[in-house]
Amino acid sequence: MPLPDPAPRRHLHTRAVTYTGFLREDGLWDIEGELRDTKTYGFVRSDGSDMPPGRPIHHMLIRLTVDEAMTIREVATSMDGTPFGECQQGNDPMQKMVGARLGPGWRQAIEAALGGVRGCTHLRELLFNMATAAYQTIFPWRESERRGAGQAPSQATEPPYHLGRCIAWDPSGAVTQRYYPQFFGQPLKRAVKPPRA
Q1: Phi/psi at 126 (nearest 5 deg)?
Q2: Which of 52, 66, 81, 139 could serve as 59's disulfide partner, Cβ 3.0–4.6 Å?
Q3: Residue 188, Ramachandran bin (φ over 0: left; ψ between -120 and 50: alpha; else beta)
Q4: From the first residue on, what is the mean pLDDT of each consecutive set of 10 residues in the chain (197 residues)?
Q5: What residue spans define the domains of the chain?
């Protein structure tokens, strides 16, 4: 269902964020994130240079290479559009995320390694949802492969991370009853997994 019709207005700014997942030939996974901020109007930047409409004020890209355990093996970053030359200093600290695990504690691991002046705000923001993008890339593919090979769907012995973290995945709800009957109506007990491997 679309949003209701808006009041008369003028489009000024677009932040486009995309995440893309890939299965590599070596069995690892690449998760890429891209953030791009543009304006519909031109303006003069603080350094006196002209910024034409549509040229990215921010254009950041991240590639995380992860293994089957969702542990980061490699990080690559690019800042093709930044408001200041000093912003490029945000690339190197991203290597602190190598060894971190996409899962419980992910946001805390990001803040611990890159929070405040230790990293770039926009790269941090882009990192936040890369865990979800990795999950959406890896786990449905695994299930599809299992089913394609004639195997039964995997039977989780521990509640999946997303259970109990959204209205649809209420442990006492209909979706949980359909997809994870073994956890339906049960208190969630999860093994504690550290954010770093």
Answers
A1: -70, -35
A2: 81
A3: beta
A4: 96 98 98 98 92 97 97 98 93 97 93 96 96 93 84 73 88 92 85 50
A5: 13-135, 156-185
